[in-house]
What we know:
Distance between the termini: 55 Å
Shape: globular
Structural class: alpha+beta
Low-confidence stretches: 4-8
Radius of gyration: 21 Å
Mean pLDDT: 95
Number of domains: 1
Strand content: 5-15%
Amino acid sequence: MPNGHTATSEPIPVLDLDPFSDAFLTGPDPYHEVLREAGPVVYLERYGVWAMARYAHVHEALRDHETYCSSAGVGISDFRKEKPWRPPSLLLEADPPAHDRARRVAARALPPRVVRELRPEFLRRAEELVRSLLARGSFDAVPALAEAYPLRVFGDAAGLPAEGRENLLAYGTMVFNVFGPRNRVFEESTAAAEPVRAWIAEHCEREALSPDGLGARIWAAVDTGEISREEAALLVRSLFSAGVDTTVSTLAAAVLLFATHPRQWEVLRTDPSLAGNALEEVIRYASPVQTFFRTTTREVEVEGRRIPAGEKVLLFLGAANRDPRQWDRAGEFDITRRIGAHVGFGSGIHNCVGAAFARVEGEALVSVLARRVTGWESTGDPIPRPNNTLRAFASLPVRIW
């Protein structure tokens, strides 16, 4: 039971929801509404953690890294009480000042100039892919589009060899699943990724990367003495962990939304310059990254509700991004809306360091689709893929013309 309220604080609702059940992971929207309407803070009795689902509170917690820390882990495990399953990420699972030094190196590897220079290549690869898909007509959009495109363009940009890139998919799936409890998807993805962990470790090393890719740009900081060889490998690992699966989930969500909202697709076809805004609306509406944990460093009060120090707090990014307190018609998909500051990429100092890369990558493909594809049709039921952190799909059969 929560012990975070006293006689002078508001009571905190106790819910028996399981945010890591298959039903919740594959159809979270009705549960998100329950969480938002229950109160600014709730206590999830099943796991003994606190949770917030309203935009204002999720946004504030993401920005207040001094109160809601990441160094105790951004999953359900508390690194102060148990050993992490791998060395913690220098970006995602660190706080200042260690985080700041690593982020400077990572950000320098992905400056706006480099991202802009990559766009023509992204467009070229998108044109190739869309031409081949139009020739096929019908296909499963998960492997043929959502996975194929980022594996190609991200793999090239990172400096990876062509052979073995599919290992990024199993590894990324595992990374996002282990942020949750040891449920079925945790165990299955860990077992599936075990054979690829050696490949990932090998390709985090300088010798395995091309000299002109993003990985090499991170390794250049070793030469200047800013980071050690061990830190460089960990930063490249972070690049691999988050560089593909989140984009796969975003593109799969985009396909499903385009196929089920033909009027919105017609708006985009009429004005392909809306591609960037359409991508942002996909991220807001579908929230490929659904949750992250933080840990309180002190007792904190949220609208009169008190959370003790040293407690895990589950932030529902997906629920926050559809909060009607923040957006009119929050539950509608509208590519023309003024979206504002959604939390699909996080916020604050832990905002996704590759957000600019992901935006240009996704916008390039969406803009080519808008110019080349007349229409979409679902040819079978979408099959979701439960994931403890991401909203993902296993299959999306579609036809395009």
